[in-house]
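User: I'm curious what two different proteins look like when written out as structure tokens. Can you demonstrate?

Assistant: Sure. I'll show them one after the other, since each token string lines up with its own sequence. Here's the first protein:
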Amino acid sequence: SVKTQVLEISAGLEAYSEHPIAKAFSNYSPCSFDSVKSVVGNGVEGVNDNVVYRIGKFDFMHPCPELANVIDKSQIFLQKGNQLMASFKLEDSLRDDAIEMINNLMHEGVRNERIIILSGDDKKNVEHIGHQLGLQNLIWRQNPEQKLAFIKDCQVKGERVLMVGDGINDAPVLALSNVSIAMGDATDMSKRSADIVMLTPKLTNLMQLFKMATKTRRKIKQNMAWAIGYNILILPLAVAGYLTPWMAVIGMSLSSIIVVSNSVRLLK
């Protein structure tokens, strides 16, 4: 059938994409393509039987009469040569623990307006997700360059940015952010660009991560205070000749053991 043919062509092209949208076609038998080009943030182009096929955003398509009548440009389109074959309407679904994670952040004192959805999706989809999460600061239709510009602007204002992402388009932004987190099921490029990779793809683990970061910072301060205090106390005694070399060696070893033991307590 025509529907099966369209889905197989789409699956064949999307097989070369790491974008999360590509997963929607993974259950269909893919066609084979040659000379495949993946344009980040736009779509995929490939050749089959000397015919060029394209799948992706509206702006990625070649101009044709069918596209001129399209009202909803947020859809994903499939094109054969200069002819529009099909369009797909995809909707994002929330992770099961997304709402719980947002509520936890607000409970910890993070203001609603400080939590931002920075997305390449269209306004309708982003507003739909934002409404479900109860968020107000929504930014849509952003390509990787625009996302980078937004993060840079925030940093110029003196703000520290924590970015959570999973798509290939998020990789440059993850690399630029002050702290970046990639989910366990994120694309390989996102994982390589992130500071932290969540092995278990659960958003609620972010709260455990924040708690661990706070405890780690506290331990660092404790260890530094101990090391500085110890040296302030011991060095004058050593210079004055009250400490023999073997006593200094034992003292330094004990100091190191105390620091390591204090740090190991984080594993409990």
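Here's a second, unrelated protein for contrast:
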Amino acid sequence: MSDRLEVVALATPHRLAAGDDLTAVLLDAVAAAGEELHDGDVVCVASKAVAVVEDARIGPPEVDGTPDDEAVRTAARGRAAEIVVDGPRVLVTRTHHGFVAANGGIDRSNVGGGLIDLPADPDASAAALRDALRTRTGADVGVVITDTFGRPWRLGQTDVALGVAGTAALRDERGSTDLDGRPLEVTVAAVADEVAGAADLVRTKGAGAPFVLLRGLARGTPGTGRDLVRPRDEDEFRHGGATAVRAGLAARRTVRSFAPDRTVPAGALARAAAAAATAPAPHHTRPWRLVRLRDVTRTRLLDAMAAAWRADLGADGLDAAAVDRRLARSDAVLRAAPELLAAFVDLSGAHRYPDVRRTRAERDLFLLAGGAALEAALVSLAADGLGAAWVSATTFCPDTAREVLGLPATWEPLGLVAVGWPATATPPRGPQDPSEVLSER
């Protein structure tokens, strides 16, 4: 590390345009600041300067030079690799580079009208500029292409590195020790982002200084901007805002095959029960009930249910072999799942009516509340990475379920929920067609 660092803004009166010689404009700015490039220097370049020169403009310039917010959002959606947040205040997308930024980094300021995208390959642009500077000056310099990004949970923006060449992107301190001799296990400094942030301290958006010179930096092992992009499968914050809520709902998938050697954390079941308790219910009741079945209880219940099912299917005229196949499919889920929950709704809080119509409607209200509670529990389990399958079996033999479990007559079964870690990766749910569900009259 360096104990002294010099940071110099390099202003230029030149308004960059597509096809300009970026290297020449940069060297003119260096000379105008009374500086020369030396081995070990690092030059930061605003990504917009690179994008303009590389003609990353999106569409023709607007007549008045000021595209509206919706034009920016539309352009960002069309270029997004993934929507991270699509809310009323902000659109955040993941770009093809892997960067996560408001409107995918698409901007409209300091571009002379219209919209400008990020450079197509910031690492390649940084490497090309570094090579050109070495050819023209003989100096071995590092190059960092920077852009201004917002940050979750923090106000304000800061500059980060998009492209890196000839200087470190990360400084890995894992394996070393702190002042107390404790080993460091997770410390990996984002050096190139820190360099970008330092560069932004000596310029503003209106300063006309797309370049910044840093001298005295220990450049370390050269890296790239790609080194700073977290792999998607390690991203614990893949979505945010309203999009996170919708993604959480869509993550609930029916899983019937579970990893046999992985136990379900008790905390996940408790969180699922707490989520169930948020469901709407009639008359300010809390009628939802989840019963975690111990192994012995599970066996007793499933055996009793199997006997009842055999009797029903036999009465339907199914032969014994067909009955065995159906039971085997059910057992493959319910007996093999690491955890099995029995879901009920308690009708003790239901109002009593003298007529069948209102009595049936009152019961249906409680069953609807139970369905909402089940969905909330299933979504919570999916949020913890668990798989679950709702099986309606107990609703066909309510008396058997209540008798085996010793429950009051007011507890109405809503089925069983098999829970466990998915044996295989669960594919993402595709887009849903709302026209099948939503209509107007």
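A detail about the second structure: The mean pLDDT is 92.
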